[in-house]
Amino acid sequence: MGCLTRIGCGVVILVGGAVGYWLYGDRLPSVLSRAASGAAETVTDVAVRTSERLDSQEGARIAAEEEARRRTRREARDRALGWVAIDADAPKLRKGVKDPLAPLRQRNGPAYVSLEASQVATVLAPLLAQLPPSVVTADIAFERDQLLLRTSVALRDFTNVNALGGILGKALDGEDTLFIAGPIEPVRPGLAQLRVKELRLKGLDLPPRIIPSLVGSLKRQALRAGAPMDTVGITGDGLPVPLPRGVSDARVVNGALTLYRGTSDAAPPRPR
Fold it and tell me: Given a cut of 90, is residue 20 above it in pLDDT?
């Protein structure tokens, strides 16, 4: 029986590993790492609560110190990333603010410009129209070759996504932080796309296999709401990013958004 039990446990582990790889693919190690980190924090919290029961004053002190350390780590990472808020008014340059894309429109201007997150609100603001209806503003940052986006969202906006409901179930209530990460890739002159490679909701990294379903739902919601959107050539996990006049191509490179000069000053094709 001991041997059979060990064989049965081995089969369960193998099946569990296969299912995990099918859902998360190459991201499985990083997902497991984050899960292990979360488990470690849970163990710490349990230890703190136990300490509170033994000595309420000492336990409260330890809990406060641990929370302060976590907050300090989060703040340090946020400062390093340089999160910048964008909103629906971002496409309108404020009075006295220099247009960072002006060099690309000059006759003898450079072939490209590389901009930090604080300089690209006018370019990336159209992404807000493709996020759930409850989104009013969002924070963006660049990390290596990816755009990071986070925003507060009403979870009821996702109730019509069957795959997501199967994972979160009754947790689709209230508000939470939606986190999206992925590269920006060119589609054709005047149009790029954000390829959503990571999506986090309710503190859970959603499996890559259901991301296209969720992104597709966001695009359909935006189209029904009347948002101007060109989806021709956009991938299942992509959100379209219309580029300003004079810009033909866009990519995130070394923590900055690189915008390439267009071959002409013609405006991008209108959304269909």
Answer: no
Residue from 100, 49, 105 nearest 248 by CA: 105
Torsion angle defined by CA atoms of residues 197, 251, 151 and 85, in that order, rounded to the nearest 10 degrees: 160
> What digits encode the pLDDT tens for the residues 172-192?
678 888 999 999 999 999 899
Higher-pLDDT residue of 126 and 63 is 126
Amino acid present at 77? R
All residues at 6 or more sequence positions from 214 whose CB lies less than 8 Å from its CB, including other chains: 158, 161, 163, 164, 199, 206
Packing angle between helix 56-81 and helix 28-54, nearest 10 degrees? 150
Q: What is the mean pLDDT of the chain?
A: 77
The identity of residue 186, as a single letter, is P
For the entire predicted model, the pTM comes to: 0.69
What is the rounded distance in angstroms from the CA atom of residue 24 to the CA atom of residue 206?
A: 8
